[in-house]
Amino acid sequence: xxxxxxxxxxxxxxxxxxxxxxxxxxxxxxxxxxxxxxxxxxxxxxxxxxxxxxxxxxxxxxxxxxxxxxxxxxxxxxxxxxxxxxxxxxxxxxxx
Length: 96
Fold this sequence. Notes:
Layout: H1 7-20, H2 24-33, H3 39-57, H4 67-88
């Protein structure tokens, strides 16, 4: 699934995030579920989530020592969250 990291590394990152910041994984998925129009309302959630990922992921032994590595891992983790949300709601995005 990962574009930049292996599936195993992405799962390790998710597990570390869940352990260090309980509730963050669900917060990532809740932001994915929210309509784009709610972005302003989700700004605080997004900010705290990125902060939690920054703190947690920098401790992982496989993360490179450059800013782009952190961004790439965040992208891969968010892709997994998006896939889980899409799997939970196959009609996500369609008119109700």
